[in-house]
Amino acid sequence: MPEVKRRKIAVLGARSVGKSSLVKQFVEKQFIDSYYPTIERAYVKSIAYKGNEYVLEIFDTAGQDEFSPLKAQYAIGIHGYVLVYSIASKNSFEMVQILHDKIIDYCGVTDIPCVIVGAKSDLHSSRQVQISELEKIAEANNAACVETSAKDDVNVGRVFQLCVQEIERRLSGNQAVPKASRCIFQ
């Protein structure tokens, strides 16, 4: 019987982009329509990926801005990152690169296991960020990418599968994952 692999994932992004909704939908299969600012919360969920069981410890973080310092607990011992923005907010999208750069600087590395998530894809009539922009930032940062809707439960589980894929790709040294499998859209 294969060993259970434990992975820590930090979910980061600007305020009110849907980080908590994404995590709650993934872990509890529940969508909360109201907004309650998150201080910080940890969730645990097991998933199967490529025949192995993974226990994911997911850190749902408080919203960040460009002046927020990166907390040590979001960098030390973290295996992978989920960087979230709302497709209806250009500012939150621009925050993704700032957060990515902060993580790189803090960790002293050039590459991190990362999934960039365009949340709230159900708000397509309010879209401010195009899919091509998501693909471009993901490629520039060697990250996977996906658009999701926690409200409609679209691609929610895929976010965390992609994150595990990115973590394992780097841990195994196997960088040859086809681009098509790294970015998922509706």
TrEMBL record:
Source taxon at top rank: Eukaryota
BP terms from Gene Ontology: signal transduction
One of the record's GO molecular function terms: GTPase activity
UniProt keyword annotations, A-Z: GTP-binding, Hydrolase, Lipoprotein, Magnesium, Membrane, Metal-binding, Methylation, Nucleotide-binding, Prenylation
Membrane topology: Lipid-anchor
SMART domains: RAB, RAS, RHO
Compartments it resides in: Cell membrane
UniProt cross-references to InterPro entries, sorted A to Z: P-loop_NTPase, Small_GTP-bd, Small_GTPase, Small_GTPase_Ras-type
Reaction equations catalysed: GTP + H2O = GDP + phosphate + H(+)
Location (main, coarse): membrane
Similarity comment: family membership: Belongs to the small GTPase superfamily. Rheb family.
Protein name per its UniProtKB record: P-loop containing nucleoside triphosphate hydrolase protein
Organism: Lentinula aciculospora
